[in-house]
Design brief:
By secondary structure, the chain is of the alpha+beta class. Helix content is 43%, strand content 23%.
């Protein structure tokens, strides 16, 4: 029963947070509403997380604008009603939302930090009215703490803290007094003082901003996460020992995951996320900052100012995803040793030191062979096996070295450590290369075939692999004026011929319409380190085609795309995402069609039974 009460209290506190996050609320009609102080200057610097809304009425009114036509319910009005109900009336009296709201944790106090101690800073115009005007808010006790709850219950506790009602679970009410003492104490450091100038600017300007201090999260939960991961790995090993079919080497994979998790926890300083809704799109800005003087910081500090995105004209309208990157040689060389270390762990000792040295040399030579921007597109081909097509364009710095790498890779894949690794995954692979197999406009074309067959074709995994890859991949390669052209499809010759024609003509003269629309959502992205588009509906169509069970193909009319761009530098990874409202509406239309089809199918089955 105690646990149930604690859960109820925690849910009540989160209800306040979600109410503020979901929509704007209104203050007292006609009351003067002075702007409260910035909550970031009230929150302790060693908080693990913070969710901050700059101006709830304005910011979350923007959410309603984005959801117009998507949701029939005004989340602002719904949340206003829920908060007023929680406080015991038809409106939340004394609440002032012309300033900032924040949810953060853990609160100071207690023997050990606990994420169950969550605090909410609710801006108030008149704290006395907040207490006296809301039926569920009790009068303050001797410490100035008011309980919040229906008659006979005490779910939450509140205390005046400057221009805020500081709210937490009733069981943690003592932390309110400790929080007040912390603020008035000498040497107290706020989150605003701890953030970098760039982080503080983002936090202050974004309508909605969330922050995670990864170092504090690692201290609180790192060992627990590692133990959970280890337990899952041991359970899978036991299942494998009992004869249950498993693909690959679970122990090696979990070692790799454990190493990745440990690296992220030790070398990541913070993660932040900003949301900017507008009537046509939802803007999302993500930033990950590395700990100073770590390998991650070195990798994310490589200067790429000399590079620029290119070959955007080769991207496709109608693609599942498009991607363009301006590769940073310093970044690639810094990240390659990390990748090879992870590859070694993933292969689980199947490769000798000599073989790993050969793989390392191959990877280094491959990097040296390329130079400049890269662009590629993936499109869905639901009636083909595999049910997708890929084209790829990249400049070659050293054509001879590239073909040398290709020849060596062919040998490694067909026989040796890489072949052994695939075999342990339950796959038989074969890589065949035919040089100068075709010609077009005087350009020599190389034919490649990569087959990936399951060892047990009757197993569930085997059926999935056959459904995904069919009899294998057919590829064509050509080089025109130092530009590598690559095509994979059920008609690779036609694809490579088209690419050769485009390259011979000096490249496409115009960026495709869908790519242009995606770029406009993000602003100027040509100086970005990478840019891409992603279409969720086409991806679903491709996944359906992968399944071994025959399903009717979905009619997915869609022309909009999620847009993504990012930069690496100064020890930070920054990613900008734009989700168009049109894409959300398109997804909703498809879901409605799927529901209609399901209802029709159920009705047909009922009719047959009659």
């Amino acid at each position: 029963m105690k646990r149930a009460n604690h859960v109820k209290k925690a849910l009540a506190l989160y209800t306040i947070g979600l109410a503020f996050c979901a929509a704007g609320l209104v203050g007292v009609a006609g009351a003067a509403q002075p702007a409260p102080n910035d909550p970031l200057r009230v929150i302790p610097a060693d908080s693990m997380f913070c969710l901050r809304i700059k101006d709830v009425n304005a910011a979350l009114g923007q959410v309603d604008q984005f959801l117009t036509g998507v949701s029939p319910v005004s989340v602002s009005m719904l949340a206003q009603s829920k908060l007023a109900q929680l406080l015991g009336g038809t409106e939340a009296k004394g609440v002032n939302l012309s300033g900032g709201f924040a949810l953060f944790g853990p609160l100071p106090g207690g023997d050990t930090p606990s994420l169950s101690r969550i605090g909410a800073l609710i801006p108030v115009s008149d704290y006395q009215q907040f207490v006296q005007g809301n039926a569920n808010v009790a009068a303050p006790d001797a410490q100035g703490i008011s309980s919040i709850g229906e008659e006979g219950t005490k779910n939450l506790a509140a205390m005046k803290l400057g221009d805020y009602a500081m709210v937490t679970a009733f069981k943690d009410r003592q932390t309110l007094a400790e929080m007040k003492n912390w603020i008035s104490g000498a040497g107290s450091t706020s989150l605003a003082q701890r953030l970098s100038a760039e982080d503080l600017k983002r936090a202050s300007e974004a309508p909605i901003w969330a922050f995670l201090n990864v170092q504090i999260a690692a201290r609180m939960f790192g060992s627990t996460l590692q133990e959970k991961l280890k337990a899952v790995g041991e359970q899978i090993n036991q299942m494998q020992a009992q004869g249950q079919p498993m693909m690959g080497q679970p122990e090696a994979l979990f070692d790799m995951y454990s190493t990745l998790l440990d690296t992220l926890m030790q070398e990541t300083q913070s993660i932040s996320l900003s949301l900017t809704p507008n009537p046509n799109a939802l803007g999302i800005d993500f930033m990950m900052a590395a700990m100073p003087n770590t390998e991650m910081a070195k990798v994310l500090s490589a200067d790429n100012s000399a590079q620029q995105l290119g070959y955007l004209g080769y991207l496709d309208d109608g693609a599942v995803m498009n991607f363009a990157i301006a590769p940073n040689p310093a970044f690639m060389k810094a990240v390659m040793p990390m990748y090879l270390d992870l590859l070694t762990m993933m292969m689980g000792g199947t490769a000798s030191e000599e073989e790993m040295a050969q793989i390392k040399d191959l990877a280094t030579d491959a990097m040296d062979a390329f130079g400049g921007a890269v662009a590629w597109s993936m499109s869905v081909a639901p009636k083909s096996k595999p049910p997708f097509a890929i084209k790829y364009v990249a400049p070659l710095k050293d054509k001879q070295k590239f073909y040398d790498v290709l020849e060596r890779a062919s040998g490694m894949i067909n026989k040796g450590a890489i072949a052994d690794f695939y075999a342990k995954l339950g796959l038989k692979v074969q890589f065949d290369l035919r040089r100068n197999a075709e010609t077009h406009q005087g350009v020599s074309i190389d034919a490649l075939r990569f087959t990936m067959q399951p060892v047990d074709a009757n197993s569930v995994q085997g059926q999935m692999i056959t459904a995904m890859y069919g009899e294998g991949f057919d590829l064509r390669l050509a080089v025109v004026d130092g530009l590598l052209l690559y095509g994979l499809s059920n008609e690779p010759t036609q694809m490579i011929n088209n690419l050769i024609d485009q390259a011979k003509a000096g490249g496409p003269k115009q960026v495709p319409n869908e790519t242009q629309a995606a770029m406009q959502l993000l602003g100027d992205v040509k100086q970005a380190d990478f840019f891409g588009t992603y279409n969720i509906l086409r991806f679903v169509q491709m996944v359906v085609a992968f399944l071994p069970i025959p399903l009717p193909q979905l009619d997915l009319p869609t022309q909009s795309n999620v847009a993504v761009a990012g930069d690496i530098g100064a020890g930070k990874l920054k990613v900008q995402i734009a989700v168009p409202k049109q894409h959300v509406l398109e997804a909703m239309m498809v879901l409605m069609k799927m529901q209609q089809q399901q209802m029709q199918s159920q009705q047909q089955q009922k009719d047959k039974q009659i």
